[in-house]
Each structure stands twice: as C-alpha cells, then as structure tokens.
Specification:
The structure holds two protein chains of two kinds.
Chain A lengths: L3 E5 L2 E8 L4 H14 L2 E12 L1 H17 L2 E5 L3 H9 L4 H4 L4 E2 L1
Parallel strand pairs in A: 2-3, 3-4
Antiparallel strand pairs in A: 1-2, 4-5
Helix pairs in contact in A: 1-2
Chain B lengths: L3 H24 L5 H20 L3 H18 L7 H20 L7 H17 L15 E8 L11 H11 E8 L17 E8 L3 H7 L8 E5 L21 H12 L14 H25 L5 H24 L1 E3 L1 H17 L4 E6 L4 E3 H22 L3 H6 L6 E10 L2 E8 L6 H10 L11 H6 L22 H10 L3 E7 L3 E9 L4 E9 L2 E6 L3 E8 H6 L5 E4 L2 E7 H4 L9 E9 L2 E7 L1 E9 L13 E6 L5 E5 L1 H8 L3 H5 L2 H4 L1
Parallel strand pairs in B: 6-8, 13-21, 16-18
Antiparallel strand pairs in B: 1-3, 1-4, 2-3, 5-7, 8-9, 9-11, 10-11, 12-13, 12-19, 14-17, 15-16, 17-18, 20-21
Classes of the chains: A alpha/beta, B alpha+beta.
Chain lengths: 102, 659
C-alpha cells in the first residue's frame, strides 16, 4: 500500500511505505506539527517497508527536537523499521526507537 | 512516452561503443588494469541490465565474457591481442542479440556457443590452468569507506541492497555516520546525507568487493583499505609470494588507485533527432518571418516599432545560432568506428595498418556527420586495399612495416576539411590513363596533367582493381563518394605521389541548415549563390558578349573562363541590362561564370528543402523565403558546373584543354 498519515488523539500514525516516495510528505507534516505542538508521538507499527531516506528523515526529526526543546516518541516500530536500521548500521537509539526524547 | 527498454538499448549501444574502443586499445598493447576494468564494468552492466529487461540470451552470453575478463583482472590470464579480438567478436554478437529483441535470436545460439567455447579455451590457458581463480584463499578483514553521491537515493540506489550483497561475501559489520544529517527545517529528504564504514571479513578479493559497488562507483567515493596483514612493505609484484595473502590484490589495488579517475560524466539529455529537426525548421520559419517583420517595420518611421523589431532580430539571431549549435557533434563520434574497420580489414588483407586520427573535437552538423560515414568508410577501404602495400613489400622499399593512415579534421574558414592520407604506393598514373582510354573516357593521345589523370578515378564506373576482393569491387566507386560529398555541398580534392602515398581532402560546410550566400537578381527573380564558391564578380558588357561569337567565354586576367547564362538556364524573360554581371564561382579546380542582371549583396539564410517533387533538379539545392515574401532559389554550384561541361571528358579535362 502507499503511504498514509493519520492523526488520532495526538498520535501520528504512519502506514504503508516509509520511503523516498513519502519522505517529503512526512517532512512537511512533521515540520508543521512541531510549529503547532510541543510533543509528538509517532506510531510506526503499520509501516510495511522503509528505506534509507525514511530512516534518515526520522533521524532529522530527532535533530530538530533536540535543538527546539520539543518532545518526540516513536511508538511500536514495525519489525521492518528495526531490520532496515540494523542493515544500514544505524543504532536504534539514534532514531529513538521505543524511547521518548525530551 | 518513457520506455525503459528503449533507454536500456541506448545505454547498451553506448557501452558497446566503449567496449569496442577499449578492446582496440587492448589489441594495440594497452594491458593496463584500468582497460580490463573498463571492459569488465561495461559487460557487467550489460549483463545486469539485460537480465532486468528480459534480454536473457544477452545476459547468459555476457556472463561468460565477464568471467574471462575477471580472470584477467585477477591476474591469471593475460590481456592479449587474441583476447581483444574475441572481445570484439563478443561485442558484435551482443549487438546482434540486442537487435533481435527480448525474445532472442535462435540463429545466434550457435554463434554464441562457438564464441563461448573460444573464451573457455582461452581461459584454460590461464596461469593456473583453471581459468578463473579466487583472488585470495585466506579470510582477511577489509575496511571499506562508502561516501555515496548525494543523489544516490533519488537515482534508485539502495544501500540496504549493497550491504546485503557485501554480506554474501563474508561477515559484514556496517556502521552509519549520521553527523551530516541536517535538522528537519534544512533537510532535502531525497538526498543522502549518510556515509558508512564497513568491516568485511572475507576470502574474496578486492575485485569482488568492487563489483558490489559497480553501479554506484562513478559518482560515489569508495575507499577499500587493504587488510592490515598486507600493509607491510611489499613494494613490487616480484616480492609477492603465496605466503602473503592478498599480495597481488594489494598491488592491483594500488595500480587502480593510482589510475586517473574517469572524468565525471557530463550532464546530458537524449533528444530524438527528429525533434531537433523540427526545432531547426521552426527557427528557420521564425528567421524568415522576423526578416519580413523588419522589412514591414522599415516602412513606418516609428522608433517605438523599430526598437523592439531590432531587439527581436538580435534575439532571433542568437536563438538560431544556439539551436544550430545543439545539432553540432564532434567528428570523433564517427572516427571511433573507423578504428574497428581498419583493425578488421588490415587483418583480413594480411596488412599492417595503423590509423591515426587528429582533430576529433572538430564539430559538424549532425545531418552532415550522418552522411559522412559512408564516404569515409569507402576512402579508408580504398587506402587499405589499394594504397597500403603488404609489410614485406614496404620493408623492401625502405618504408616502415606498418602502413599509416591519417584521418584528420580541422576547421577552415566557414567549413571543415577532412583528409584521409596514407603512406602507401600512391595512385598509378599509367594504369589510370590506360584504363580511361580503354573505357573511352579520354582519347588515346590526350595530354593530361597528373591532377587531371587522378581526377579520372572520380568518373562513374572507373576501377583499376587488379583483383576483386571482399574489400573493394563492391560496385561502389569513387564517383559515388564524390556524389555523396557534392550532395553535402562539399568538394573533394585528390593529391598523390608515386611511392609516397595519397591524400584525399573533403571540404564540407559546417551545417546544411543555413547558408552564407550572395543574393543576385535576374529581372525580378532572386537567386542565392553559396558564398564559399564565389571567387569574384566581373562585368559583362553587351559588346563582349557579342565578341564571344556565341562561345560563352570571357577573358578574366588573361584566363578564359566559360560562363553560364542563368537567364537562359531558368528560361526567364525580360530585357537584359546594358551591362550584366558575371559572378565567378569555383568548383574544385574549375572556374565558371554565372551571368546575372544585378548583384545585391551578401545574405545569410535558412535553407528550405524543395521537396521530393523537385529532387531531380540538380542545379538548385533549395530555396529560401525573402523578407518581402518572394522565394529565392539557392543555386547548386556542382550541378551548374556539370551543366557547363556536360560530358565526362570535359569534366576531367578542364576548359583550356578543350578550347
């Protein structure tokens, strides 16, 4: 399936392919979210595939919150997200998978 | 609509050209690792992409060539001229398979199998006797630094797949470096900001590692650091022993790293030629309409109108030059294929011939280049077949064993001169004259200069070949070459010296799309004479015309010049002015006058084709629409000169011999 983003109860849920085709859409959404809100919970449990561009964007979002004193938590990443991160040699902690940042 | 198979075929075509050029270099003694690597990469890409697009026969065949080249890379097989010849045959075979389409070519299976057998036979001669060798036998640890091009991801590159391929070679640890990734506000999410260091423990050699990166290596920085165990000083290949693992791979790694990196590919866009032709046609119409606009504007004394019209004139001229320059291509693009021709023909005829080229970067319009290949092929065939002597004969004459053919292109004035020059036996004056007399082309007692005799070979049906070989004797003579050059508004000049060689110079216009002309008028009709043929203008008073007694010749500085009355040729009525003008044009060595009423001046114009209904008219090469809407015909000078000398005898023996 293609990429979909849903906002429910303050949680942003990503579904489908978190890859180079969808990163621009997610970047816009996250940028706008951080302008309006101080806290973000990203639900990646329904991500079916992901690639370097997708994970790079997650890391970029973490850079943003670090410099703007925002909060971000990634909730229940699907196995494919973790496997891709491991294959690319990106430590899970660097992406904040399963941990909350303040 | 975008067709990926079409793109693959175009890329494969480019790769085959690269393969041919690299194989010829190898054949000429270039045994450097980068030449082998270049060949390997090209075949590897064809194999991979071929399989992806369903060209299975191509992929299967290419796999065997690739394996042989891999043996060369690993040092177990020598890059010999024999291998280069096989690679050339393989290239031809792949070209045939590609043209047969995805379904393959059943007829090609047998040819392919024979070629594969040859490759295998060659591989059996390898140092080890097995053909392909693993590069190392011991497992060692490699450090790889991979800094991809920023556009890796948007170009379809996928590091996950690369690392998966690396993992197939051995135990692989990947570490991503994230420090370059910007924050959300600054990131361009389709660019790759990551880079990696990879530790790979494998028994495969460096070449196997490089192969993983083969599709991304052009734009990325890839550093493969040799295992620590071999960084101990091993200065040269002689000190390499089997006890030092990877010694030979380390050496090849050094050689590769010392080799100059291939120049970055220029950013180019492929455009179908017919779109360019249409663009040139539209610009042509724009130029003509701009000229009409300028003429109309000049009738109003208005600065408000004149200024923008002048500006449009400037812009249109700039646009015209730019559009025409898009169609300009380097002549080197066709020189490449001649190397193969010379390589194959000299082997076939048992001669030793070297082709030297100069001025490959000289640019010509694509439409001219497309039509120049065939005449040049014929001239080269002639040089190899008739000009260059067999090696033994050359040595007996005190010449170098190798015959040399020099193919040179250079700019000259408003055109380009392409010369084909060989150091062979030269044209045989006596044989040519005898043959011409036999064929009834000249009288037996004709007293001709060397040049006039040499020009006889340009007459239709003339051939002095002693024996019909597969090279010459194809029924295509020099007359056809001359006709093809004439059709390009070019000229051909022959020079030869017995025992020293022959030089044929082709002078060609830069483009067929525009022409610098001299605008002349007869009555109310206008004509354009190509400026490159115009030598001078003289007057023809009525009295002089009468003195000629109908012989249509005029004395210009003690030389008699025949002239053609264009009013008669085009059957135009009207009164002749008391003093007419003669525009003297030169076609090759002959001067001919063209009688007109008035000479208006120079005129650069866009040529419009006359269309197929008028294709048999040989005295007009095209037309153009003038500013006031009138059509001016562009005169074809070779055609008019032929009309001045209708018989072949006269075209070979200029006017003064006949007078």
């Amino acid at each position: 399936m293609l990429f979909q983003i849903r906002e429910e109860h303050g949680i942003v849920r990503c579904e489908g392919n978190l890859d180079i085709r969808s990163v621009e859409e997610l970047r816009t959404l996250l940028s706008e979210w951080f302008v309006r809100n101080g806290q973000l919970t990203l639900d990646l449990s329904a991500v079916e595939s992901c690639d370097t561009a997708g994970l790079q964007l997650l890391y970029s979002a973490r850079q943003q919150i670090a410099s703007h004193r925002k909060q971000m938590a990634i909730q229940a990443p699907s196995a494919v997200v973790e496997q891709t991160a491991l294959a690319l040699g990106i430590p899970l902690e660097a992406l904040g998978l399963g941990v909350s940042d303040v | 609509m975008y067709n990926p198979v079409e793109t693959f075929l175009q890329e494969a075509e480019d790769l085959l050209i690269e393969i041919e050029s690299a194989a010829l270099e190898m054949s000429n003694g270039d045994t450097s690792p980068e030449r082998t690597n270049q060949l390997f990469r090209a075949f590897h890409t064809i194999k991979g992409s071929g399989a992806m697009f369903g060209f299975d026969q191509v992929a299967d065949f290419t796999h065997h060539v690739e394996s042989t080249l891999d043996a060369v890379r690993s040092g177990s097989l020598a890059p010999t001229a024999e291998l280069a010849s096989l690679v050339l045959l393989a290239k031809d075979h792949i070209k045939l398979l590609l043209s047969a389409g995805q379904s393959g070519d059943p007829a090609g299976i047998e040819t392919g199998r024979k070629l594969i057998d040859h490759f295998h036979a060659l591989a059996r001669t390898a140092v080890t006797g097995t053909g392909t060798l693993p590069e190392t036998t011991e497992e060692v640890s490699w450090e790889i630094e991979f800094r991809p091009a920023p556009n890796l991801l948007s170009c379809g590159g996928n590091p996950v797949l690369l690392f998966r391929d690396l993992a197939k070679l051995g135990r692989c640890e990947v570490r991503a470096h994230l420090e370059n990734v910007p924050a959300l506000g600054d990131i361009q999410p389709d660019l790759c900001y990551l880079w990696w260091t990879i530790t790979l423990r494998t028994s495969a050699g460096e070449n196997a590692i490089r192969d993983v990166f083969i599709f991304v290596e052009d734009d990325s920085q890839i550093e493969i650091k040799a295992p620590a165990s071999v960084t101990t000083p091993v200065a040269t290949g002689e000190t390499a022993t089997p006890t030092v693992p990877c010694a030979n791979t380390r050496l090849s790694s050094e050689q590769v790293s010392q080799a100059p990196k291939p120049a970055a590919k220029e950013a180019t866009v492929r455009v179908p030629a017919n779109r360019l032709d249409r663009l040139v046609g539209l610009v042509g119409e724009l130029v003509m309409n701009q000229s009409r606009l300028a003429q109309a504007a000049s009738q109003f004394d208005s600065a408000e109108l004149a200024l923008p019209v002048e500006e449009i004139e400037r812009l249109v001229a700039e646009l015209r030059d730019d559009v025409l320059s898009i169609r300009m291509m380097q002549i080197g693009t066709i020189f490449g294929r001649f190397r193969r021709l010379v390589h194959d023909l000299s082997r076939e005829l048992g001669k030793e011939v070297e082709l030297k080229t100069e001025g490959e970067d000289t640019e010509l319009d694509k439409s001219i280049l497309d039509q120049l290949g065939e005449p040049l092929v014929h001239l080269l065939r002639n040089s190899i077949d008739h000009g260059i002597e067999p090696a033994a004969q050359r040595v007996a004459q005190g010449k170098a064993r190798h015959g040399t053919i020099l193919l040179r292109a250079s700019h000259t004035g408003s055109g380009v001169v392409v010369t084909v020059e060989d150091d062979g036996r030269g044209l045989d004056r006596t044989a040519i004259q005898r043959k011409a007399v036999e064929k009834g082309l000249i009288p037996a007692d004709a007293n001709l200069t060397d040049k006039e005799i040499f020009n006889l070979i340009l007459l239709p049906g003339f051939s002095t070949a002693q024996a019909i070989t597969s090279v010459s004797g194809r029924g295509v003579g020099m007359d056809v070459v001359k006709k093809q050059i004439d059709a390009l508004r070019g000229s051909l000049v022959l020079a030869s010296e017995p025992g020293k060689g022959t030089r044929i110079s082709l002078t060609l216009p830069l483009t067929l799309a525009i022409i610098d002309g001299l605008l002349v008028e007869i009555g109310s009709d206008q004509f354009i004479i190509p400026m490159n043929a115009v030598m001078e203008n003289v007057e023809l008073p009525g009295a002089d015309r009468l003195r000629g007694n109908g012989r249509n010749v005029i004395a210009v500085r003690q030389e008699l010049v025949p002239y053609i009355d264009l009013r008669q040729v085009f059957q135009l009525g009207g009164e002749r002015p008391p003093i007419e003008k003669i525009v003297i044009v030169q076609q090759e060595d002959q001067r001919v006058g063209l009688v007109v009423d008035r000479v208006i001046g120079t005129h650069q114009t866009v040529i419009q084709s006359l269309g197929r209904f008028f294709r048999d008219i040989d005295i007009v090469s095209g037309s153009t629409v003038m500013g006031d809407g009138r059509v001016a015909l562009i005169l074809d000078i070779p055609g008019l000169v032929r009309r001045a000398n209708p018989s072949p005898e006269h075209s070979a023996t200029p006017y003064r011999s006949a007078a």
